[in-house]
Amino acid sequence: MLLGVDDLQQIAIAYYPNPVSSVFHFNAKQPIVAVNILNMLGQRVGYANVNALSGAMDLTSLRTGNYIAEFSFEKATKKIKLIKQ
Fold first, then answer.
1. Which has fewest Cβ within 10 Å: 6, 14, 47, 67?
2. pTM for this one?
């Protein structure tokens, strides 16, 4: 799969709160297929099958620290830094 720069710039994700203490909310203009929460070792510690423009994840079971939220779309993925309080 090849993507141009324009394809990646069109993927805009709104998310809140960050830092998160309990529920992590997100939405996008393109349907989000799934969201993976990865620890800093790259291990998956959370997953949500979304298949919608918006969603939420309960992250209360995660330990305090830094994580990566990986949003999967039909033709791309986007990662953001997520801080758990």
1. 6
2. 0.86
* Residues sharing a CB contact under 8 Å with residue 69, sequence separation 6 or more, in sequence order: 15, 24, 26, 35, 36, 37, 38, 79, 80, 81, 82
**Which range of residues forms the domain containing residue 68?**
5-84
- pLDDT tens sequence across 26-85: 999 999 999 999 999 999 999 999 999 999 999 999 999 999 999 999 999 999 999 999
DSSP 47: E
CATH number (domain holding residue 39): 2.60.40.3080
With residues binned 3-state (H G I as helix, E B as strand, rest as coil), the percentages for the chain, rounded to 5, are 5, 60, 35
- Note whether 37 and 82 are within 8 A (CB): yes
- Please name which of 12, 69, 75, 61 lies closest in space to residue 36, comparing C-alpha atoms: 69
User: How many structural domains is the chain composed of?
Assistant: 1
